[in-house]
C-alpha cells in the first residue's frame, strides 16, 4: 500500500472587509436590471426588449416630426396619455421580461443557493421589483422625454406649463411602472415555465381590460357614469390614469375615471395596496421556493 500525500493548496481564510447589506441589495438590483434588458445574455435575449423600445419610440419621433413640419404645437401628444395609448407594447414587454426575473430561479431550484448566503429574502424580492420597475420606467419615460424635447425644439408656447406637464407625466410613468411591475412579477412567479408566464401575464392584462370595457360600456348605456368610473380601478392602466387625472391634473385618457373628490385618493390607495400586496405574495412565493 502506497503512502498518502498531503498537498498544500494555499488555502487562507478571508480577512478582508465584508461588504454590507446595501452592497448586496445593489448587486441584486443591477443583476436583475441587466437581465430585464438581456444584457450579459445571448444576443437573442436582447432582441425583444430593444425591439419594443424602438416600437415605443416610433410614435413619439413621428409626432415630433409632424409638429416640426406643420408648426402646430397643439398636435403634440399629451405626455400623460402616452403609456395608455401604447399599453399593448408595454404589456408585451412586461410579459416577456417578468418571467426572466421572477421564474428562472424557481424553475431551476436555485433560490436556496441565494439564501444560503447572507441575502435577506425581502431584499431579494425588493431588488427584483425595483429592477422591473426601473426597466418599465425607462421604456415609458424615454419616448415621453423625446416628446418633451421635441416640444422645446419646436418652441411650444408657455414652456413653464410644458415643463410642469412633463414632470407630472414622469410621476405618472413611475406609478405605472411600479404597479405594472408588481402585478407582472406576481403572475410570472406562479408560472415557472417561461412560455406559460408570457401567456399568463398578457392574459391578465388583456382580459381585465376587455372585461372592464364591457362593464363600462353597459354602465354608460344606462347613464351610470359614476359606476363606470369606479370600474376603471379594476384594470391597471385605467387605475393609474385615474390618479393622473384626479391628483396630477392630467386630462382623461381612459374611458371613464372615478368621480371627484374621492376618486383620486381611492385610486392611489388601491395602487399602494397592489404594490404592498404583490410584494407580500412574492415574499411568500420565494420563501416557499427556498424550502424546496
From TrEMBL:
This is ABC-2 type transport system permease protein. The chain crosses the membrane at residues 50-70, 82-103, 124-149, 169-190, 197-219, 262-283. Keywords: Membrane, Transmembrane, Transmembrane helix. It comes from the Bacteria. The lineage of its organism: Bacteria, Bacillati, Actinomycetota, Actinomycetes, Streptosporangiales.
Amino acid at each position: 500500500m502506497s503512502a498518502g500525500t498531503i498537498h498544500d493548496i494555499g488555502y487562507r481564510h478571508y480577512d478582508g472587509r465584508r461588504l454590507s447589506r446595501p452592497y448586496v441589495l445593489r448587486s441584486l438590483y443591477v443583476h436583475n436590471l441587466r437581465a430585464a434588458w438581456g444584457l450579459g445574455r445571448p444576443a437573442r435575449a436582447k432582441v425583444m426588449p430593444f425591439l419594443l423600445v424602438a416600437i415605443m419610440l416610433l410614435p413619439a419621433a413621428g409626432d415630433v416630426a409632424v409638429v416640426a413640419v406643420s408648426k402646430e404645437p397643439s398636435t403634440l401628444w399629451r405626455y400623460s396619455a402616452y403609456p395608455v395609448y401604447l399599453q399593448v407594447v408595454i404589456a408585451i414587454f412586461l410579459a416577456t421580461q417578468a418571467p426572466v426575473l421572477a421564474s428562472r430561479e424557481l424553475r431551476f431550484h436555485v433560490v436556496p443557493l441565494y439564501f444560503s448566503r447572507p441575502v435577506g429574502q425581502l431584499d431579494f424580492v425588493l431588488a427584483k421589483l425595483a429592477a422591473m420597475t426601473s426597466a418599465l420606467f425607462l421604456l415609458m419615460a424615454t419616448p415621453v422625454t423625446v416628446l418633451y424635447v421635441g416640444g422645446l425644439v419646436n418652441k411650444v408656447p408657455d414652456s413653464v406649463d410644458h415643463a410642469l406637464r412633463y414632470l407630472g407625466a414622469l410621476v405618472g410613468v413611475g406609478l405605472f411602472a411600479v404597479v405594472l411591475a408588481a402585478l407582472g412579477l406576481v403572475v410570472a412567479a406562479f408560472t415557472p415555465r417561461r412560455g406559460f408566464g408570457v401567456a399568463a401575464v398578457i392574459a391578465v392584462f388583456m382580459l381585465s381590460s376587455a372585461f372592464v370595457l364591457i362593464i363600462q360600456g353597459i354602465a354608460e348605456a344606462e347613464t351610470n357614469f359614476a359606476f363606470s368610473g369606479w370600474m376603471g380601478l379594476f384594470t391597471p392602466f385605467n387605475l393609474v390614469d385615474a390618479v393622473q387625472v384626479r391628483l396630477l391634473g392630467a386630462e382623461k385618457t381612459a374611458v371613464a375615471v372615478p368621480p371627484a373628490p374621492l376618486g383620486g385618493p381611492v385610486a392611489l390607495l388601491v395602487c399602494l395596496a397592489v404594490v404592498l400586496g404583490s410584494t407580500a405574495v412574492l415574499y411568500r412565493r420565494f420563501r416557499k421556493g427556498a424550502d424546496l
